[in-house]
Amino acid sequence: MEINKDTKLMDILKQYPWLEDEVIKLDESLAVIKTPFGKMMAKKLTVSKACEMANIDMQEAMNMLNAMIEKHEHITSVKQNNNIELNQDNERKTIMEKYVCTACGYVYDPELGDPDSGIQPGTAFEDIPEDWVCPLCGVSKDMFEKVSE
Ligand SMILES: [Zn+2]
Hints:
Order of helices and strands: HHHHHEEE
Radius of gyration: 30 Å
Strand order of the largest sheet: 2-1-3
Shape: rod-shaped
Largest sheet: 3 strands, antiparallel
Strand content: 5-15%
Distance between the termini: 46 Å
Number of helices: 5
Bound molecules: zinc ion
């Protein structure tokens, strides 16, 4: 949303509800926008009118608003990206768990597989054929336990 001098305060706050708290941090007197009276005023007040009343330089106020919005949107998008990466990590972990042989301590790593026994890298332990045995000591699959990290 592009903010200009004729944008109504209410429309800005509707679009960016978090801005209310940011604005109040700038100057306590601005807490008035939280009150019913302030909300009523905000419906009618444009940016230019509000600046005139508060005796603030309009260009400065608009630059500040736009900068705050830009910063907030940047933070939000970074957060979202982090969440996506986190989810992908979790998924990979649940699919690709390591298993340890309780007899000899050999660890089956799904990323490596067990190519000598025909298990391709990337094979989850659950997908290994039941007749597969520990490549080190030869015990069967049911002797393996999930590695808890
Ligand atoms: Zn073993």
